[in-house]
Every structure is written in C-alpha cells, then in structure tokens.
C-alpha cells in the first residue's frame, strides 16, 4: 500500500468531510474525476444504529443520549488499499462512494481527489457553517440596562 499523506490526522480529516457531506454531493464531485477503479467488497453497505453518547456541559460524566442510524461499508481496491465509511442515515450510495474515496486517498490519486472532491466539500461545509452563524446572529438580542431617572 502506498500512502501519500500522513495516515492519522489527514485521514481523520477526509473521513470527517465525507461523513458530513450532503446526500449525493461526494458522488457528484467524484463523477467528474473519471472512471472508478475496480474493487471488491469487504463489507457491502449495511444500515444499522449506533449509540450516541453525550456529556453534560461537554465535560461531565458521559451518558447515553440515544441511537442514530448509520450506513457503513468497506472496499478493497484491486491494488490492495482498503477504504471504510460510516455515514449518518440510510445512505448506501454515499457510504460506497466514501469508502471508495477513502481507499483512493491512500494511492497516488490522492492529490487529484483532494482538489476535485475534498476541497469543494470542505468549502461547502464552511459555507454552510457561516450561513448558520449569520442566521443565528440575526436573532441575537442585546440586553442592556436603561437608566430610568429615579436616582
């Protein structure tokens, strides 16, 4: 297997981007790159649920918040690289593309995929985050104390 990037931090970054991508967005971007390579299924896309844990105030004792539906799969390229994906919701096609991109990011195609798929996804997510922040800021109320003249 040929790794063109640091496997730990960079992989966490691209896996996060693929998991957060809107439905069908990664596939649309990936379709512009070219023909997908041959691969074998290690785990076909399957839908299940995971327990989501929370912490009161972000620092308190962990507690079970509830279950969330996820789709997961794993592929192996004919060149040997293995890709995994866990996607929120019931989105088999998105999980397949995410696993395929994960595997391809471990090959010499990583730079092209980063430019064609991951950078646009990152820009989309940043733009959506800014839009939510602007929307929230528009509802901000500034409270102040008025002098009533009784003193």
Outline the low-pLDDT stretches.
Answer: 1-5
Largest sheet composition: 3 strands, antiparallel
Q: Strand order, main sheet: write it out.
A: 1-2-3
Q: What is the number of strand segments?
A: 3
Structural class: alpha+beta
- General form: elongated
Elements, N to C (H/E): HHEEEHH
Summarize model confidence as the mean pLDDT: 88
Q: Describe it for me?
A:
This protein is 40% helix and 26% strand. By secondary structure, it is of the alpha+beta class. A 3-stranded antiparallel beta sheet has the order 1-2-3. The N terminus is likely disordered.
SSE blueprint and pairings:
Elements: H1 9-20, H2 25-31, E1 39-55, E2 62-77, E3 82-88, H3 92-104, H4 110-138
Antiparallel strand pairs: 1-2, 2-3
Helix pairs in contact: 1-4, 2-3, 2-4
List keywords for this structure.
151 residues; three-stranded antiparallel beta sheet; 3 strands
Question: Summarize this, please?
Answer:
The protein is 40% helix and 26% strand. The chain has 151 residues and is of the alpha+beta class.
